[in-house]
Amino acid sequence: MDSGDKFEIEVDGKTILARKGQTIAEALLANGLRALRTTRKQAPRGVYCGMGICYECRMIVNGIPNVRTCMTMATPACKVTTQDDSRITLEK
Amino acid sequence: MREVELIIIGGGPAGITAATEAAHIGASVALIDENQHLGGKIFGATGNRIPGSASDKVEKKLRRQILKDFDRVGDKITVYLNTEVWDIVDQSMVLLYAKEGSGGHVKRIKGKKLIISVGAFEKAIPFPGWTRPGVFSVGGLNTLAKKGIVPGEKFLLAGAGPLQLVLADHLIHAGAKLSAIVNAVSLRDIAVSALQLFASIDSLRFRSGVEYLWHIKRHKVPIYSSYIISKVYGSNEVEKAEIVRVDRLWNPIRGAEKEIKVDTVAYGFGLIPCTELTRLCGCKHFYDERLGYWRVELNEKMETTVPGIFAAGDGLTIKGYSAAIEEGRVAAIEACTQLERVNRREADRLLRSSLRKLKRFKRFGRIMDTISSPRSGIFNILTDDTIVCRCEDVTARDVIFAVADGARDVNDIKRRTRLGMGHCQGRICGQVINELMWKLTGIRKQREIFTPSIPAKPVPFEWLAGE
Fold first, then answer.
1. Is residue A76 reached through a cis peptide bond, with omega within 30 degrees of 0 on the bond before it?
2. Which chain B residues contact residue A80 at CB under 8 A?
3. I need a surface site. Which of B203, B239, B273, B283 has the fewest CB within 10 A?
4. What number of helices (H) and strands (E) belong to chain B?
């Protein structure tokens, strides 16, 4: 594909390529990243419903926790971090 | 606070059409959607990269037409994207949450009439291991496949319903390797519904169905009918799946298990309507045993039992976008009639063709829902450790203890276990809690539903401050 519609995003300090029109979740999955969050019991979770209902794909996006990555478009230079629910004490 | 004549919640095919129609008639309209774009799940997807089937092409054409019609009157519609509705008070005041980064600041809109067209989501029954990364809903994986994203090496499709075939077709086009299609419905039941479909003369859908099956057959994907997925294994993500043959009531047959080495699973049993908002408004709902879901009670003009509140689209019953468009149109025209933007006689004239078309769509939905609706035996695949509520990590064992402690209704189980209290607000676990309770108590009592609670979607405290 033309490289013009590709850009970089940062995931846990590493760089991956996203494509214009992709949600963050889609960009991660296209790069083989499926475990996006760990629950309070330290179980890994990833995208399940893909349509904003199940809230399983929540990650920390640009410092904001609990962002549904399946509903949020990837943008150039956005920073995504795997979310550990046991370390998010206050809903923010 | 903003004021408009008509508020529409949900910008899918039904909501877009309703907004277009109402704006065309002359009403002031606010259209709210939680996504970053209009169109919903079907018409919102952009960047599709695989060749589509006959029905994909029809879908595309319709999508273009609807958005074009919308753009023509779009300047009369205020659109709130990236915005969630977390409460509705006094039947007409809609409380909003503009998500982070959306730039929105409007917290409430007052309307005279309300159309709720929030669509549907996928039906799921818990099974051991289903929370592992690599297990997707059928619809979720379908959206990915359409964009050419293949999030695994070897795929297994399990559950029931026509969407499974659509997904199989899209995955093959996207270059995925399908290890198996596992369908809980028996071949006999599939054949019967295919005949019914043919009889209902829905030639497009019938043709697409044949096209999908042919594509799957050509790629020699093994199909297991009367099988369900009973387990996925793996240290973290999915590494292996177990399937098991079921009887007519979907009871697993011991000794008829089979292991399949896959790393990705799509799982679902068709769609069910989102009813949180209509329930929050106090509209009357009833459980449709045949379709297997709760639905809102409506008159033929799409008005709920609360005067002035209408509903349209797959949030009512699952019939697909063509029906949703007509329902959106009917709801908008009727709302505009009540707003005295159009007189009764003219409205009846405008409504005639849509009402006629809607009768036909009903049949398709009925056939599809009936074959994909889960049967009671499937609940026997749950083990004590199976997570029932994904958000709060509540297992079947937790529910067993709650029932042993005396919990006798679903809201009581919720209070005791936190099941249904997490981020998704019981949308997933709420589908199975009745069956689970009946199984544990041995008493099949009347079906219950969680009491609707606010916020309907999680809202940060900062946003509420000053409200």
1. no
2. none
3. B203
4. 14, 21
Residues B236, B132 share a domain:
yes
- Of B20, B230, B269, which Cα lies nearest the Cα of B127? B230
ipTM of this model?
0.94
> Residue B134: which domain range?
124-269
Pairwise pLDDT comparison (B147 vs B196), residue with the higher score: B147
Pairing mode of beta strands B177-183, B154-159: parallel
Average pLDDT of chain B to the nearest whole number: 91
CA distance A88 to chain B (A): 14
B100: contact with A, CB 8 A cutoff: yes
Asked if residue B265 and residue B189 are part of one domain, the reply reads yes
Contact A30 B391 (CB under 8 A): no
Do B152 and B248 lie in a common domain?
A: yes
Does the residue B466 lie in any domain? no
Backbone angles phi, psi at B210, to 5 degrees: -65, -40
Supply the CATH number for residue B24's domain: 3.50.50.60
From start to end of A1-82, where are the E strands? 6-11, 14-19, 37-38, 44-45, 58-61, 64-68, 79-81
The answer to whether the CB atoms of A48 and B134 lie below 8 A apart is: no
Q: Are residues B305 and B348 in the same domain?
A: yes
Among B324, B348, B369, give the residue marking a domain's end: B369
Residue of B48 and B365 predicted with greater confidence: B48
What integer pLDDT is reported at residue A92 of this predicted model?
A: 40
Nearest to B325 by CA among B53, B108, B69, B145: B69
Of B453, B447, B419, B451, nearest to B435 by C-alpha is: B447
Q: Are B414 and B426 in contact (CB under 8 A)?
A: yes
Q: How many domains does chain B have?
A: 3
Helix H or strand E encompassing B243: strand B240-246
B457-462 long-range Cβ contacts below 8 angstroms, 24+ apart? B457/B34, B457/B84, B457/B85, B457/B86, B457/B97, B457/B425, B458/A55, B458/A66, B458/A91, B458/B423, B459/B84, B459/B86, B459/B97, B460/A91, B460/A92, B461/A91
Interface test with A, best of B36, B100, B121 (most A CBs within 10 A): B100
Identify whether residues B357 and B392 lie together within a single domain.
no
Chain A, window 60-89: residues with a beta carbon less than 8 angstroms from a chain B beta carbon: 62, 64, 66-67, 70-73
Straight-line distance from the first to the last Cα atom of chain B, in angstroms, rounded to the nearest whole number:
11
Residues B278 and B362 in one domain: yes
Q: CATH assignment of A3-83?
A: 3.10.20.440
On whether residue B449 sits in a domain, the answer given is no
Domain boundaries, chain A: 3-83
Q: How far is residue B24's CA from residue B453's CA, in Å, rounded to a whole number?
A: 35
Q: Is the distance from CB of A43 to CB of A26 less than 8 angstroms?
A: no
Residues B368-378 have pLDDT tens digits of 666 778 898 99
> Strand, coil or helix: what is B379?
helix
Q: Within this chain, do residues B128 and B263 fall inside the same structural domain, yes or no?
A: yes
